Amino acid sequence: MATTRRTEVNDGPVNEPDFYQVSKGIKSWLTTLDHKRIGLMYLFAIMGSLIIGGVFALLVRTELFFPGKTIVDQNTYNKFFTLHGAVMVFLVIIPGIPAALGNIIMPIQLGAPDVAFPKLNLMSFYFWVAGALLLVGAVPFGGLDTGWTLYTPYSLKSETPVLVATSGVFLLGFSSIFTGVNFLVTIHKFRPQGMGWFQMPLNIWAIYATAIMQVLATPVLGITVLLLSVERFAHIGIFDPTLGGDPVLFQHFFWFYSHPAVYIMIIPAMGVISEILSTFSRKPIFGYRFIAYSSVSLALLSFLVWGHHMFVSGQSRLANMVFSALTFSVGIPAAIKVFNWVATLYKGDIRLKTPMLYALGFLLIFTIGGLTGLFLGILSVDVHLHDTYFVVAHFHYVMMGSTLVAFLAAMHHWWPKFTGKMYGEAVARACSIGVFFGFNLTFLPQFVMGSRGMPRRYWDYDPMYTTFHQVSTIGAFVLGISMFISIVNLLVSFKTGRRAPRNPWGGSSLEWQAPTPPPLYNFENPPVLHEIYNYDDLVEVEEDRWERRAPIEVKATEAPGDAHAHAKPADPVPPPPADIADKAVARAEKAADEATSAVVKATEEVKAAETAAKAAEEAKAAEAPKAVEAPAEKADEKKEGDK
Amino acid sequence: MSQRRSRSPLVPVIVIAVTAALTSLFLIKSFGMPNAQAQPSPAPRMELEPVPAGSGAGSAAPTANTDQGSAQVAAPAAGSGSSAAPAAGSAAPAAGSAAPAAGSAAPAAEAMPWYDVLANKPVDEAGNFWFPKAVNKIADESDMMFYVVLALSAFFFFAIAGIVIYFTIKYRHRPGHKSEPSPTHHDSLEITWTIIPTIIVVFLFYYGWRGYIHVVTPPQKAVEVQVQAWRWAWNFTHSNGVEDSDLHVPVDTPVRLVMTSRDVLHAFYAPVMRTKQDIIPRRYTYVWFQATKPGTYRLTCAEYCGKDHSQMGIRPDGRRTVIVVHEPGGYEKYLQDKAAASGGPPEKIGKMVYETKGCSGCHTIDGSARVGPSFKGSWGKTIQLVEGPQKFDENYVRESLATPTAKGRAGYNRTMPSFEGQLSEKQIEGVIAFLKSLGDGQ
Fold first, then answer.
1. Is residue B421 classed as helix, strand or coil in its secondary structure?
2. Radius of gyration of chain A (CA)
3. N or C: which end of chain B has fewer CB within 10 A?
């Protein structure tokens, strides 16, 4: 192993134990209010669910290896795909990035000691656990067979334990809402001074957009399953046509939540990818503002397009027309993101570490997922493709191929930070390639099956599709095994991994300044705010260890710990005075010559923030006012100056 | 540094874009040319004259499930021996040659009416890489849209993938390579790649919507067929009251289906017609098409409806529900012959009900259990219900047709829909006579 030649650097906290050591025992974990521990518990619960959902997926694919019966009968198969869908959607990809990785990383990335409401955070986790137990608990009660969409009137007539499952979904919805509220408040109130909205990492923008949707859309899911339960229980006619209800109304309710839910899944993935692509290309993210705005516009547009799931449901033609038009508008921010990501690679120094391999895979998979969405948005084509394998392949490209690949990318990106261990890079890279090829092998044939007319949720199929199904099943096993090994590889690093340095990838955001693993309140010394996505000062001192070349040393104004206590959540990390000075320097250096020298001189002398800010004001006044907001333009000017 | 910076990325990007365009065109050309492939089923078109039924029965075997051999095909027919005389006069001569030609173990294969011979033909699956060949007059428009978007998608995918791979190789980390400064944003570039997709999607939306209007707007004059769907069967009722479990339609004539469901959601989906519509209980939904080529085509349910969703309308012999598009004049003859075949002795009427009302989707008459119990040898027996023992007699049959969920056979789900008001008195008597003819338990 190459590990021996590297120096083992202890980048953990110096004066206090890290968050694993701060208290011991099962009880200290179960009652913890620490966002990292809650996030870790989420993470392990979600990985467990991922394995359950994955096993159901492989069972589904195995059954489809031959037409007719391969291993199970129709009823069992229907339960398999229902549980695969329900577990993967409600338990894995909706909370996957926001609740698990968002919980662990987002507060550190903000430079905050914790989320705004730690107790709500813990409650959100326990609601998730209760919901998950009910949802998976439907299995011993006979399993659910309604499909994860719970369409009425089938779900009203099904003899499987629908009520148990809907109670689970109801609780999971609350868990999601709690997380959303918590993150919204945290992002609004816990940003350190000097971090304006447009100095936030894009991951936080994405989580912010996600939280908006969680808070606004999830209540509708709660109402829907509540109405469904009431109708099943008390036979009040809401969705059941024999009682005077309207089964299509259920679809409206359901997709009013579940379409934004797709964006709850994909937008955090986009945030993660923005971070990783920039970090591993050593380039500032291209078009920061466009990516940030596109996250929020996707979030808002996602509320207006639910009807495109219902083009052949009996919905009116006018509604179909409007929803088709609105659906295409979603394609535009998505396209903007892809183009900006590609442009970020330009003239970079691309390091193909595991997170970057996953991110590049994401880029290709998401492109296919997005482009195939065009087919389905076109009304006349959707009439043919709706409810076929084309749709199955399309949403797996977005939800599985993009979101889960981004989830794996994020795991590999931040794993060293929150566990303090480096994973085996070679195995991880091999798995990332296996995931990419396995995934495409699984789902590319499904597009062709779909356009040839293979309906979804079919236990038996026409023999003409056999070859496609078999290729797809083989791909699914490649994918499943690769993902399983990559998770095992991560878990093994707990025992055998080399100690991770503070900043293994040379990231510029605040979490890489925290000790590895972080202490209870994340930072021993208040973090220093640098220009986001600027990698100029970061140098690789040895492989997988980066340091700032000329960090501006800052004395902590006060000891951390007490100041960060949960009791005083309104008192985030006090911004160090030099923090603003630093920003001013960064900006001023890029300003016009005479102003620059003055500001630099001033900064060297200045101790207090006010003076520096004033100097920055002078610099602003001396130069174009735009310069301060968009330092990148300076680069343009410089470039032109060179010419 | 300045040398590197001055080199424009435009040249390789253009090269990649051109390559992507050519690749996508090649893909469309080789995989997606409409009607490019020869039809793999050169079997002679089914004429009005019945061809020897042997070809029908023989070719039905491949479509049958492997676990349901062709021997079973004959079983139901043999069970109802009294209806051996087919009323469809023109089909009668062919009947004699049918049994020996079938070549199977079937000892007394009943002559199949000519229209059922058509329905038993293997479905026409001709097509290219992407699609079964469209036989709906208005399908070309949506197929064209599919190919246009396919070309666009292939172009953008190969362009993006090409640039990503090119950048990844060109700017990969290696000793001595460093990232170079470049703009971190570029407003005119952003605006360009916002506007281009916008223009594209506006066009896609417009043409998609226009095509859709054609897909959902039937001409004034159309042949109407009433469609009922339930778990797990289809029933098609034609203008003269003729009922069938296969959809028979005329060629080159607009056909409008008026559809409703009796239990949960279903969806009418005929891939060759490129048309699909959910079927909703207690509400009518519509679909229309104008078939351009006679033949036998696949018809499936596309909205999940439970256990036998994937086999909706399957016959005891494993054959699925199909659309039969008749030659000119064939549809009218079908209506006549089928109507003539609907009369007759009560057992025959009962058998018609059994076959056309979807009973056969769940209840076999050969003793094997499907979704529901088999009818064979049930008559007069005392059967075990969840509610207690019950004699299988006339009253039980009548009650089970009207309120099937009132009593449940042990070990079966109560999913059968009610036939209250669906059957005439004569038909109910027919069902009873038919069940009697299947033998009693003593």
1. coil
2. 25
3. C
Q: B152 is written with which tokens?
A: 């666009």
What's the order of all strands across the beta sheet hosting B295-298? B247-250, B322-326, B295-298
Q: Characterize the bridge pairing of strands B388-391 and B266-270.
A: unpaired
Instruction: List C-alpha distances in Å: B239 to B119, B226, B355.
Output: 20, 8, 19
pTM exceeds 0.90, yes or no? no
Please indicate whether, in this complex, the C-beta atoms of B264 and A154 are within 8 angstroms of each other.
yes
Q: Would you list the DSSP string of A514-526?
A: S-SS-BTTS-SSP
**Is-contact B215 A319, C-beta < 8 A?**
no
Least Cα distance to A527 among A535, A518, A536 occurs for: A518
Per the CB < 8 A criterion, the answer to whether A77 and A182 are in contact is no
The per-residue pLDDT for A561 is: 36
Which 3 state secondary structure label does DSSP give A481?
helix
Tell me the pLDDT tens digit for each residue of B334-385. Answer: 998 888 877 777 788 888 888 888 888 888 888 888 888 888 888 888 888 8
Tell me if B320 sits within 8 A of A455, measured CB to CB.
no
Residues in B closer than 8 angstroms to A324, CB to CB, are 205, 208-209, 212
Report CA A226 to chain centroid distance, whole Å.
28
Q: What is the mean pLDDT of chain B?
A: 78
A345 vs B: CB within 8 A: yes
Interface test with B, best of A380, A386, A538, A546 (most B CBs within 10 A): A380
DSSP reduced 3-state for A460: coil
DSSP A195-232: --GGGS-HHHHHHHHHHHHHHHHHHHHHHHHHHHHHHH
Q: Which of A475-484, A586-595, B388-397 has the lowest mean pLDDT?
A: A586-595
Of B208, B212, B300, the CB nearest to A455: B300
Determine whether the interchain pair B198/A332 forms a contact, defined as Cβ–Cβ distance below 8 Å: yes
Q: Is the pLDDT of residue A320 over 80?
A: yes
Nearest to A414 by CA among A22, A107, A208, A90: A107
